[in-house]
């Protein structure tokens, strides 16, 4: 599959931080993502009290929605602004603490304890820091990761997932020659080869 000129495109952490600072966050959905609502049963698989991971979480409203259902939510996001906005917009009190294993990283946790958001690069996380997850809601991470980092991203996700966990993954389909991304075009064939 021809992914056009996107193969070598790299978006820096600074560019992402700038998007948040400038409010250029068209990818954020105020009402949550309709596909999560539609396929929630697939993600939860009839289980309650799951640990659910939100890679590159931004200020996704679904984090509170799933936590309110009794699940434990963990997210990671490079933008501290996004994480603080999440807690402020939901009027959720939180405490902030450093993450000793990751230089400069912070963890913002709801005082109820069921939402923990890490402010750092996703590649700094490991299962020894955040544990393993029963479910993953990837609604914009794989398509935001630089194409050259996809294998690294998927390898990390595999180490964070429990044996019988489910991952709900949203991608976008378009002609990659007409849009430079992000979101990047990830053909289905590549998803199958990445995740096996």
UniProtKB/TrEMBL annotation:
- Name the positions where S-adenosyl-L-methionine binds: 16-27, 56, 77, 121-122, 139
Q: Can you state which reaction this protein catalyses?
A: S-adenosyl-L-methionine + a thiopurine = S-adenosyl-L-homocysteine + a thiopurine S-methylether
Localization? Cytoplasm
- GO biological process per UniProt: methylation
GO MF term list: thiopurine S-methyltransferase activity
Top-level class of the enzyme under EC nomenclature: transferase
Keywords, A to Z? Cytoplasm, Methyltransferase, S-adenosyl-L-methionine, Transferase
Q: Does the keyword Cytoplasm apply?
A: yes
Q: Which InterPro entries match?
A: SAM-dependent_MTases_sf (IPR029063), Thiopurine_S-MeTrfase (IPR025835), TPMT (IPR008854)
Q: What is its main location?
A: cytoplasm
The EC code for this enzyme is: 2.1.1.67
Similarity field: Belongs to the class I-like SAM-binding methyltransferase superfamily. TPMT family.
Designated name of the protein: thiopurine S-methyltransferase
Q: Which organism is it from?
A: Alca torda (Razorbill)
Gene name as annotated: Tpmt
